[in-house]
Amino acid sequence: MKILYLETSSKNCSVAISDDDKLLCVCEEVSDNYKQSESLHTFVEWALEGAGISMKDIQAVSLGKGPGSYTGLRIGASSAKGFCYGLKIPLVAVNSLETMIEPFLDQNYDYIIPLIDARRMEVYTAVYEGKTGEELSQTEAKILDETSFEEFKDKKVLFVGDGAKKAQEILQLPNADFNDSIYPSAQYLIKKTLEKIENKEFEDIAYFEPFYLKDFHGVKKKKPSDS
């Protein structure tokens, strides 16, 4: 089964294609300018070319559903829906945080904790068991302070994601490791996607919404002064 994977929730615009569990191609780029609107469909074309297949060969689409960038998630979701409608194929959605822990499972960490940078000292996070990847606490928006995650001070913990940098500056955890170069990636959607397909956990394409976690707060325009 050939599957197209889209991950647009962060600065990493990421596209992958697999044949069942075999990764055929991945095309991604990290940009501070959030280039999803410019790059996503180009990356899909490149990934298809790299995999040696065409769009009509795709049998399912998997989307990293967030949490993360509101705009990035909108772009990814609308593209995924468009592909699914056009090809009449199912849509699978996976928590983007789960793609960040996949490369680090079974590396002698008790826990792996993704941290996606939100505003100021806020992060999107969840706690996963370090060997199996089992979710131990639900995804939440968390304000970091010196006491955050102190229940893990005697454990071997890995914090991953672009929120790890500000966490490292304030957390009092002597046994923790921090890796702030990790972003959600389409290539790590494969395992969870295949589980969902096997269990027939498909999304309702018409009503699917990304996992925003918080309401969007746009910049309010100033009213012209009455002069």
From TrEMBL:
Domain Gcp-like: 37-203
Signal peptide location: none
Any Gene Ontology biological process: tRNA threonylcarbamoyladenosine modification
Gene Ontology CC: one annotated term: cytosol
SUPFAM superfamilies cross-referenced by the UniProt entry: Actin-like ATPase domain
Name of protein: tRNA threonylcarbamoyladenosine biosynthesis protein TsaB
Organism: Chryseobacterium limigenitum
